[in-house]
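Quick one: structure tokens for this chain, please?
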Amino acid sequence: GSSFCRNGSFHMATALLVAPLSMGASAEEVRTATSVFESFPLDTEGQDVRALSERLSWRQPAGLFGYSARSLYKDLWCYFDAAERRAPVHELATKALKMYGLGGAQHVMDWDVIRGPIVVMRLEPSSMFQPPPGWSYDPTLTAEEISETFDYFRRAAKSAQQIALARDARRFTQSLATAPPVDGGVYFGPSGTRPMAKIFNKDARHCANCGKAQVLATHRLRRCAQCNAAYYCDKHCQKQHWRNGHKA
């Protein structure tokens, strides 16, 4: 049977249909392959599934949670046909969305690849999410953002699952009002465990110049060799920060 668990809201969300793309697809090819999927999503998962089966002839519509390139909460919900075996592999979607099991299952990866098109939209954050200052929810998902997200996970040194685990852990610790739970100092996430020491140290680092968090960076932030305290995305950020007044 189908597996989905759309436990989120899609208030004013825009659904996009993205045709299969190879790993080497250009930004223009991603935009060309992306179109608005009209009159979707509907009020319930059951209605969504029936609509996908009727409109796209899918045999087993299944759902996946995901993160867009710059999101700190699971802001994407993607449908695909889990029973498809003949259509081309959607290489970019598989790479970017291989974070959780079907329906958001934790600790299990119960699907292999995505074949055929996907239908993707943005979820509203849950009440547990603590947004940074100045943040606001934008229900609009664009072809440009899909392209950015695919490119981010294509270039990332870590797997989408590892990146999701780190972001999950950061969101988890932000929701704690007091000290970490006494469970052995380990956070349990989609791909296993993550020590609290990493969550409160490495995951909490930010680039001293642009402010990018470690969990959003595609590689490990580099420590300043002069002051041994500041971290930077790259040499460009370090030079810019020094020009703006940073001193060892």
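Helices lie at 27-33, 45-56, 91-97, 143-155, 160-174, 196-200, 235-243.
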